[in-house]
Amino acid sequence: MRPVSDDIEFLQNPRAIARQARERLSSHSHRTVPRKEIQSYEDQGWAVESFGQRTARMRLLKDDDVAFRDRVWATFARLQFDVMNSGDGFEIGISSGERARFSVLAADNETALAIQCVSFPDVRSSQLKAEIQALRDVRIETIRALRRIFPDRKTKVILATKNIAVMPNAQELLSSADITHLDEESVSYFLLLADHLGKAARFQLLGNLFAGQRIQGLDSEVNALRGKMGGQTYYSFAIEPDRLLKIAYVLHRNRANSDLMPTYQRLIRRSRLQEVSRFVESGGFFPNSIILNLDTGRSPRFDAVSKSVDGPVMGVLHLPQTYRSAYIIDGQHRLYGYANSERAASELIPVVAFVNLPQSEQIRLFMQINENQQAVPKNLRNTLNADLLWESDDLRERSRALKLRIAQHLGESKVSPIHGRVILGENTRTALRCLTIEAISNGLTRGNLVGTFNKASVKEVGTFYAGTNDATFAILVPFLESCLRHIRDELSAQWLLGSAEGGFVFINSGVESLLRITSDIVDHLKLQGVADPRVTPTEEVYSQSLVYLDAVIEYLQSLGIEQAAEYRRMYGSGGTTRYWRRLQLAIREKLPDFDPPGLSEFLEDEAKTFNTESFKMIREIETFLNEDVERRLKEKYGEKNWFALGVPRKVRESSMTLAAQKNVDLPPDKQVGYWDCLHMIDYHAIVTNSQEIWSELFAKRYTLPDSGNPRASWRSRSSWMTELNRIRNENVHTYTVKPNEYEFLVKVAGWLLAEEE
């Protein structure tokens, strides 16, 4: 038999690999052909992209399976594996002349990987029995063959899938066979990470593939101090980034790390990393420590060389010598900033390492650190709290975690009808990915599907509440998926729009209202004795709900362009309430026995709601300004000096006087601060304190869109705050808000509060 290595055509030229990666990431195959052959190619589906003097560049849309295979190939190429297969796959000789075929080969001086790609054109659930069995049959021989071709490398067989919701049994089979599974979201994660980190992203991949496996030749010893902090043992030491990078792992909030839940880190920002890298290359250094958790399963070896009863002890710490054994809690940009620097092997960076912290404790520490540095974005806080509060002793927190987990699942699960539509972690907002976890959680909170809770007892049992989070999740999620899937399928035009112009259903206010109306329907079914979700099969509850859901769908389908635009402007709690109530009315007009509590009273009072809703919007805007302006001032002037340096003297004096007047009759624990005594107009004075302050801190966020002349003076661009203050003052004094003023408030609230989400 010929040597196995002769069976594979390798690409080893970095330029050739980079060029191939660019081509493979394209949605089309490309080929340059003589002009006389154009017609022949066009007959096969190719199209002319451009003409040369004697040739034409042709392109052909790739089939889904080819496009996915090429994307996987390009991902490993971008991770800077320096040996890749050429062509559309490779065959490897295994035994007795037999050959195994794989989609992608990727190797470097440490690893050799054989990757099999499987994809479907649309999402489906699968046990992948045939695919897994085929890999199990050849895995051991493939590993042996890879080791013959690439001696002294770590090897792995990988199954990469697209549009496949891999069932739990399949996951267990893959794990037992030591086959790594990467779905399309994991592939996208590593591709994005490669774009941000370059070759350094391989450390994250190696931690994923070879967690717990020994790293050959790694020097594990560091001089360290051992001490106690907050009841936890910690070690303080300095280490070369090159060594730490090999064992480090970042728990990015991404589906690629779903098997390591709960995860908590924000994805590395490329711009921030580049800044750090330039700083390092220019001779800069960071005196503050990287915070990490050593995950060893036991106390690490520490050879003490000093003794102390209460204080720290000096000694030699033996770090773990395995992949993915040091989880970075804080400092990922500082560490990875060294990744492509020659100084990584000689520079020393300070580290504070805790040992075997549960991930819930890591999350708490991460959030505490970031509360005093860069604020954790609201959407990321929500995803973290879904894990952090799941088993809380406080039933209110546990209930909140359930709602957040449901929202997260609806966005992440491939079989969910709103998969990919929910902004998770730090994913960016798009026209389609426009739903927040907060909006879905609000819909569940304001309905009766889960119920309400005191700290230690159930206050009101929700229609689907089954006693525990896990049991409730198991019956509620399939019901919500069925309802949302039906609405999505019947309102396909709206589904395709999302939050783009004309879209008003699959946006935050729309989905929140749909969840609330679904809760009303279940309440009605239970009241009528038709179905009780805790005893009636979920499929039957859904079936009985359809006639009511269809009434909602028919109503939404009937709305014209102007009405749709009105629904898009229904922001804030008042606007969402009106949206929801109109869905209730739509059902009652079709099915008169549907009469949810409060609907009749709402209709009677709707004529008077301008004032009430206006006041609510004003209060929400005031709350936003209070929090946002304070945050921006603190970021510029610091925690100690922000009020003195950022607030005009006249405003400070008036707020101090008002605080003193209020505090005269208040007990010490009820005293108000100066910042709590600002008037609406005071925020305008602060943001326009000077042109420099306006331009640096407020101009981008506080210029009302479509507010007139773009060349207007910087002061006039904040004039909406003056008008807001006028309406606010008159609203307080029983003034009747005019329609045009109400529309102004809707515009301002919609702009500020929608952006704030």
TrEMBL record:
It comes from the Bacteria. The lineage of its organism: Bacteria, Bacillati, Actinomycetota, Actinomycetes, Micromonosporales. It holds the Pfam family DndB. This is DGQHR domain-containing protein. InterPro entries: DGQHR-contain_dom, DNA_S_mod_DndB. It comes from Paractinoplanes ferrugineus.
